[in-house]
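Example record

One chain of 248 residues, shown exactly as stored in the release files.
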Amino acid sequence: MRANTARRSVAWNAALVACFAMRAALAAGASDQRGQGSKQEDAGAVAGIAVGALAAGPAGAVLGAGVGALLGERYHRQAQSATALKEKLASSEAERERLLENVARLDSSLAEEKVRGEQLDATLARTDELGLDVSFRTDDDSVTAQAMSPLLKLGALVASLPQAQLLVAGYADPRGSVTYNDALSLRRAECVAAVLGAAGVARERIVIEAHGKSASAAEDGDLDAYAFERRVTVRVQLPSTAQVARRE
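Predicted structure tokens for this chain:
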């Protein structure tokens, strides 16, 4: 009788120790790698031995060890799965934040492009009003440094408008022969066209005309009026809607 009581006391104490050991192992987390004995499995085995021994002696201890190890390992796997799921959710949340940032940047870029498109449309609506005049010295066809900057700016604008063309027309004052002034006005127009080409306008988009002194309205000897007639006019032209439709 005393022997049985002693065995049960020892088994009870072993069970208590095993329970504490199992609680400590479960609190350690689920960081063990698969394929290795986990702390939960070991604690379950110890607890199973103690409980089995208490319930059914040595045979119960063996059975309890197996059942306890199985339960401990099952808990260990569940804890590992929960940890992996938490990590996956955290990764998904970070990816969602990155996607939201990308969408916000894309929306901002689209808004900027829309503004630029509206500005371009407004520019296109005023292209018939765009143009400039380039003045020349007497019997000279060289473009002055003062006229160079506005020409380059206008050329850069037209280069960005694929369907726009430039009409470059040269003129001369009434002094000199018709043949000479025709050639002089042509050289002036070609020099201006060369500057526009340097700004990026393709040569086939530039129409050159030479009017010589045919358009002169200055009175004979009026030097101030002559100065206005030694010029090249540059005008931006767009094809009509019907022409665009035929091309498309």
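Notes: Residues 39-125 form the longest helix (87 residues).
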